[in-house]
């Protein structure tokens, strides 16, 4: 019998208690209990089991908020976080261990001293999440924060209210709720949180809001990790396996109905193969959705009407030709995976990040032209994808930067939970996942220790100086 699930209606945290919540998390950090490795392991194990026990509520919430299928929710949200917990549990002792420094870091002249790096928790951190992966994108950083020994306040997206409420219950009933708290709400609550002093702010969301967060954090010299979006290019040359490229890139735009920061926004393709590529794209769509995309129980929906209209506007205003998809239904917040053939970087399809199931195809006559266009559209995208010969793929990697890159596929650089992930330039700064999650919330504190017996070797430092003592 299916478990009956009830989710508390969304309720924003009262603004006037936010300072006390932040102060509580800071106070807990000052007790030093989070520095104990066994304590951290217990919290990570509790988080693993909380996700396990809350599966029905989490799946229900994700279906309610984004119409996500259980299949996708399990793979990209719940299983993901549980794997993160296990990875951190398995490796925590090694990550947290002092690192002894010898040659080549310490010159022979100082070899009588002990140098080591202590891995110290930054302190109390704020994690602000977006709506598209409302569970994974706050719990994965939280795994890093717990592993590092920090306390944390989490601010999930208000656009996915059911997930936000389940998260609050899950964290505050299962973890140490003096150390880990959830504040729910939108801009006023985020602003109230940003008025508090944090040891790091971990923000995932749009570049526009990231700028607001970074500016506010700068006022108190608070470090930030910014995981932002961007206009991600895919490059396809004559040497690509076109059928595979079509299927894999379409997959990237069907996951979470394209509400994925890493998926391609535009494809720069050699004009000689564009027609064949479009045929493969249509064939792949037919294969994934034999009864049409709308009838598929697997395809998520757009999060809300505002985003539905934002995406629709890009399609309404394009001067390009819709070559695949194009159907929409506002009552269901449904947008069919859609490809548009364009010939100008000024097209509405290129103007902003689509963050939906739509993308454009731009025919080019050479890889030179493709690289010129891509660097003029977004010099530092979050992702790029290259489908070509080995030499062509290397050229793309050499001549165009990005947060991460995948050769011959869609976003696999960001689909494995234990490899570092992050943006570059205006697609973000800082990285997390795997060991990078631990490092993200850790201060590398160099400690030098000088034994008393070493005094005679070090006495040259004292005044009065004698230049002859410097034996360079
Ligand atoms: P968003 O920037 O609108 O919101 C993110 C968070 O900021 C939310 O918790 C929201 O409540 C808060 N917020 C919104 N406006 C604010 C304001 N004016 N002041 C203070 N706080 C504010 O992002 P979104 O729409 O939820 O998510 C989509 C964006 O996130 C896309 O640009 C996408 O590319 C990006 N994203 C990036 C990654 C990554 O890992 N790099 C992952 C997912 C999404």
Automatic annotation (TrEMBL):
Family: Belongs to the aldehyde dehydrogenase family.
Designated name of the protein: Aldehyde dehydrogenase
GO biological process terms on file: aldehyde metabolic process; carotenoid biosynthetic process
Location of the active site: 227, 261
Domain Aldehyde dehydrogenase residues, every copy: 18-447
Residue ranges crossing the lipid bilayer per the database entry: none
Record GO terms (molecular function): aldehyde dehydrogenase (NAD+) activity
Alphabetic keyword roster: Carotenoid biosynthesis, NAD, Oxidoreductase
GO CC terms in record: cytoplasm
PROSITE patterns attached to this UniProt entry: ALDEHYDE_DEHYDR_GLU
Any one Pfam family match given in the protein's UniProt record, by short name: Aldedh
Keyword Transcription annotated: no
Origin species: Podospora appendiculata
CDD domains: ALDH_F14-YMR110C
Protein origin, superkingdom: Eukaryota
